[in-house]
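Sample intake sheet
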Amino acid sequence: MSTDVAIDTPVTRLLGINLPIIQAGMSWASSAPELPLAVSRAGGLGVIAAGPMRLPDLERAVDTVRSGTDTPYAVNLPLYRKGADEIIDLLLRKRVPVLIASQGGPKRYLDRFHDAGTICLHVVAGEEHAAKAAAAGVDGLVIVGGEAGGHPPTSMVSTLVMLRAVARTVPGLPLVASGGFADGQGLAAALALGAGAAQFGTRFMASTEANLHPDYKEALLRATVEDTRTVGHGLGVIRAVRNAFTERMAALEAGGGALDDRHAEFASSSLKMAAHDGDVTNGKVEAGQSVGLVGTIMPAAEIIRRLVEEYTAALAGLPSVRARY
């Protein structure tokens, strides 16, 4: 059930949602209808992660979410994935309310989705790509900073700085801040920095609806803010919780290992191993630095309720400006 409060921002107005809370499109975790449906029903924007999904599974997930709520939802599509064109055709046919596209250029899809009435957000990690996407006509941007899990920008510039840089580069365009957010205080910070919403990934991984192996969720709860590291530099960098896999990769990278050796080690592990099979020792336990701020597994609706409660408390706790006499 949707929350009975609303926070009005350029992003909530654009998307038609009550709260500036977006659940990140996370392979496996939201490659199923349960989590996106719960988030959208609670007033945020739930996002189906199409990345690892087969076409029939994606169609069923879209149909389930659409029939389960009359509030907006989104599909995240990495444009580089095999079969992306077929997925684009499916999403156009389904007339999904919101598309969040990543890892590719917006010109490939933008006109067709706009013709179908779909709102298009594009994921960027720097000023140059932000300017190009804005010039192409996207409706808004998701800005990813170095704290993010999964695939952070290779520059590793923090969300704190990157968001301000992009806001100056594309003034007036609705922005979503992503990377490092796990509580309502973070949401308040994102809005203060010029975003119209914050995207929460790791926080929603630790939800009852997240489509993750229980051992993956437990690994998230054990981790501190210092327990992630980036590996795969030059191969498609990821941020993941430290385990035997990340240590092997880090040793190869620190020792100047040959590219073929690093590629072989990187390819020997996968997110599926951890997320689906529960191998949190040798799989890729992708998570953001905010993992250390996540201490409990709870329903997505309760996560959203607490985010709003914390946001309200954060605003009330800010010192007011007064004149000096």
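Comment: Residues 68 and 79 are 27 Å apart (CA to CA). The beta strands are 21-23, 46-49, 73-78, 98-102, 119-124, 140-144, 175-178, 197-200, 228-231, 238-241.
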